[in-house]
Each structure stands twice: as structure tokens, then as C-alpha cells.
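WARN  no MSA supplied for this record, continuing single-sequence
INFO  ligand: iron/sulfur cluster
INFO  echoing inputs
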Amino acid sequence: MQDIIKNLPKLAKDKHNENKKFFARLKKKPPKNLDYIMQELHDDEFERTDCLECANCCKTTGPLFTDKDIERISKHFKQKPQQFINQYLRVDEDNDYVLQTVPCTFLGTDNYCSIYEVRPKACREFPHTDRKKFQQISNLTLKNVAMCPAAFNIVENMKKRIK
Ligand code: SF4
Ligand code: SF4
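INFO  complex generated
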């Protein structure tokens, strides 16, 4: 897995133009059953990919924390939301709460998330490949394929399946 992660930025760069064209076409004319296709591709990929062998998303980017996330996680730590914010978060250039440091402070050396049950919504949904109307997040996906091996494979399989 480490070799795959190491080579991913280069592989994604090589595919970037092809992917960009594919998503431009997809946006114009998404297949009627796109949600169904994505669910299938997503489920197949995550049967093969073990996130515990990877954790590259937790190591290289952090999630956004919504107010609900902050409420839930601070409660878990028996902290006031503001205490949690002061200890772990900062406001980024888009005015969102993000982690002060990456790799994520809640990631263990065994790649387990120490707040898994209460983790942010963005972590639960990453890499968003099973969301509805997937064509709407093509710019984000174009970036994610350089960091997430599962997202990379899913996009490669999409291109084979949707002509
Ligand atoms: S979601 Fe992607 S980047 Fe994150 S651990 Fe799983 S395969 Fe790796
Ligand atoms: S909160 Fe958990 S799942 Fe989210 S980035 Fe941190 S370690 Fe990963």
C-alpha cells in the first residue's frame, strides 16, 4: 500500500487531463442511473481496499469540523465546545474550522481513529464516491484521486463503465 500511496500523485497527474475531460462530459450528460453505478463502484472498491492499511486522508489532509461535529466531539471529551476549539482547531482561509496540525491528532500509529464513533461528518463521507449526483463534486474528486487510492481506482473504473 505504501508504494501505491507514494506513486499516486504522479499517476493522478498523468491521468489529470483525461479525468478532466471525462468529468466535463459527465456533468453535461450524466447517466440516469449514475447514483446506482457509483454505489456499486464504491462498494466494490471498498471490499478490496482496507483503509486501515492506508489512512492517507487522515495523514495528509484534515476534515472540516461543522458546529454539530464540534458539539458531538467536545461532548465525547467532556469539554466545552470552545475548549475543544482552542485545543485542536483553527479557522482556515474559507472561514471553516480545521485541525491545527496534520496528520490528524486523533489518528493512532496503528491507523485507527481514536474518535471513530464521533468522528466528523467529512471523515465519515470521504472520499464521497457514494454520494448522490457525484458529477457535482468533480473538482474535489480531481484532487482526491491524487491522495486517495480508492478514489483513484473508482474513477478509473467509472471511465471503463461509463462511455
Ligand atoms: S478513504 Fe482513501 S485515503 Fe482515506 S484511508 Fe481510505 S483509501 Fe486511504
Ligand atoms: S478524525 Fe479520525 S477519521 Fe477523521 S481525519 Fe482524524 S483520524 Fe482520520
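The beta strands are 64-65, 89-91, 97-99.
INFO  checksum written, moving to next record
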